[in-house]
Write a structure and sequence with these properties.
The chain is α+β, with helices and mostly antiparallel strands. It is built from six helices and eight strands. A five-stranded antiparallel beta sheet has the order 3-4-5-2-6. Strands 1-8-7 form a three-stranded mixed beta sheet. A hairpin with a 2-residue loop joins strand 3 and strand 4. The protein is globular, with a radius of gyration of 20 Å. The two termini are 24 Å apart.
Length: 242
């Protein structure tokens, strides 16, 4: 059985009852998809005191937008999450106000962000394998949550061939996936912590470091993705019959 039942996985609790539950990462996140207003193109991410906003263009003339804020967990706005976004980001730079104006109040998602509190003992137990957020929840700061889940799915599809021993295949699955995904968890969490800085000295320092990096060593901006975006599946393909 493959269990992919999410961050608060009941299967993970059953397999490893003593393992720490995911912990709150220190910020909540909003997500929305809106029709792209005229003249708005490209992607960006802006960091403010204890908060961030980003946009990504989608096909079909749409924009995916996301925002984060360092707040206690469990919060909800009495007048709706779009109203909360307007309070927090309505006076930010173009095109944020126009995107919020185009948003459907009923279509704004808000979710507290959780991350793995500790590496799991394994990604499997017996004949059960865990996959995705069920075993390695991570902050969204590298955009790798869904990507790592897809990698998780590909690896056992290669390893657990009909003529392969299941125990050996699942042991190899844990051996390949546990160190890689926990490295991504740690990298994403480090960036997430930086976005929650909110004191003026911290934000000034962060802005100065980012500006210096962009000017003197722009390649460093992509360094957190080293060894992540260039992943390849195991040799051969399970669908090829080889």
């Amino acid at each position: 059985m493959v269990a992919a039942d999410g961050i608060h996985s009941a299967v993970r609790r059953a397999l490893f009852p003593g393992h720490p539950a995911p912990r709150y990462a220190g910020f909540t996140a909003w997500r929305l998809v809106v029709p792209a207003p005229d003249g708005i193109h490209g992607a960006h991410e802006t960091w403010g005191p204890g908060s961030s906003w980003g946009t990504v263009p989608l096909t079909g003339g749409r924009i995916y937008a996301y925002a984060t804020a360092a707040v206690p967990p469990g919060g909800r706005a009495a007048d709706g999450e779009r109203a909360e976004l307007l309070r927090r980001f309505g006076n930010w730079h173009h095109p944020i106000p126009r995107l919020l104006a185009a948003a459907d109040p009923a279509a704004v998602l808000r979710n507290d962000v959780y991350t793995a509190a500790a590496p799991p003992p394994a990604f499997h137990r017996g004949r059960v394998a865990l996959l995705g957020d069920a075993v390695h929840p991570m902050t969204p700061n590298l955009g790798q949550g869904g990507c790592q889940a897809i990698e998780d799915a590909v690896v056992p599809a290669h390893l657990a061939a009909p003529d392969a021993g299941l125990a050996a295949a699942l042991t190899a699955y844990t051996r390949q996936r546990l160190p890689r995904t926990m490295d991504v968890v740690r990298r994403a969490e480090r960036i997430g912590r930086i976005t929650t800085w909110r004191t003026r000295p911290a934000c000034v320092l962060r802005a100065a470091l980012m500006a210096a990096t962009a000017r003197l060593a722009p390649d460093l901006v992509l360094r957190p993705l080293d060894g992540i975006a260039d992943w390849r599946p195991p040799a051969g393909t399970y669908a090829s019959g080889t």
